[in-house]
């Protein structure tokens, strides 16, 4: 009778260990899996974001060329590499800032000197990069001939023309 | 029995913990697709961007060289000959300038072959300020992925070769108005447009002969290398 009671208690301990062990195994397995999955998800999201950044940077440069800007072919990789996301947009040059605060502060540091907000557009400062200047944004002769743009733009009677490099 | 079970639990726990370090959750989602986009698609887009930049440079160089040689390939001359360094477009009742469509295509093709020997282009032409051409299909192949893209181009030059047509029309009008005129200078003064200068664009000088060289500043005010594009051509008014 005494032996049976001892055996019963032993079986109960075995059951307790089994239940506790199963719980521990499931918790550990769940933690290990979720950590790994989260890590993989983060990696996927990071790579998608990086793809979008590079793709947008390439498109930004294509737009600049189609607008008549000159870009040094040796500088393309650097421009793409240094482009960054800012408020949902990829910034590759000053022209990509769409708000005055971002333009004047240039948090991505895309400008050689600085970017400046003029006439609701972001432009290079008074010392613009000659290979990225867009003359057509200057609507009057005085703006077109302003210091810093001489040699890059010229007033053509009714429009500010780019001097081809 | 308890120790065996405990050992089993510790062992399994250790395996799962280590498994976390060894990517137990499987591969990164979309890894192949992302690799394809980054290593194939984006590389192709970068290559096309660089091609466009080089083609634009080539187009501008071509514009400069043709303008400097009166609409003829460097080192060649008009069938009417030259007056000094200036190409003669009209002589003895014969119009010698045959346009630049073929010349632009030839010169651009030569330059593209030099700068991008791996790429082959055909049907090079221009349409307004755009230089266009047909390229081959190029494949970027990586492990288990191939991306094929077209290298045809349409690049904005900011300069139009169609200026030559305008100058040609104005030249023809000038010739038809003043050809054989006794008082040639008076006729030309009245008929020519103000961006047509006698001899040089800087120091205009009327040469007292029937073969008149002109310096014509770009009618559309195109600039290359900080200088307005100018064309030197001569006409025989005898």
Short précis:
The complex is a heterodimer of chains A (165) and B (238). Chain A has a domain at 130-165.
Largest beta sheet: strand ordering of chain A: 1-2
Separation of the first and last Cα atoms of chain B: 122 Å
Coarse morphology of chain A? rod-shaped
Structural class, judged by helices and strands of chain A? alpha+beta
Structural class of chain B: alpha+beta
Instruction: Identify low-pLDDT runs of chain A.
Output: none
Task: Let me know the average pLDDT of chain A.
Answer: 81
Rounded to an integer in angstroms, the radius of gyration calculated over CA atoms of chain A is 31 Å
DSSP strand (E) fraction of chain B? 25-35%
Question: How is the quaternary structure best described?
Answer: heterodimer
Helix content of chain A: 40-55%
Shape of chain B: rod-shaped
Number of helices of chain A: 4
Helix content of chain B: 40-55%
Q: What is the string of helix and strand elements of chain B?
A: HHEEEHEEEEEHHEEEEE
Largest β-sheet summary of chain A: 2 strands, antiparallel
Chains forming the largest contact: A-B, 50 and 47 residues
Characterization of this structure:
The complex is a heterodimer of chains A (165) and B (238). Chain A is α+β, with helices and mostly antiparallel strands. Chain A is 50% helix and 13% strand. Chain A has a domain of 36 residues. In chain A, the strands form three sheets. Chain A has a two-stranded antiparallel sheet. Chain A has a two-stranded antiparallel sheet with strand order 3-4. A two-stranded antiparallel ribbon of chain A has the order 5-6. The longest helix of chain A is centred in the first third of the chain and has 65 residues. The radius of gyration of chain A is 31 Å and the shape is rod-shaped. The relative contact order of chain A is 0.08. The model of chain A has no long low-confidence stretch (mean pLDDT 81). Chain B has one domain. At the A-B interface, helix 1, helix 2 and strand 6 of A face helix 1, helix 2 and strand 11 of B. Strand 6 of chain A pairs parallel with strand 11 of chain B, so a sheet runs across the interface.
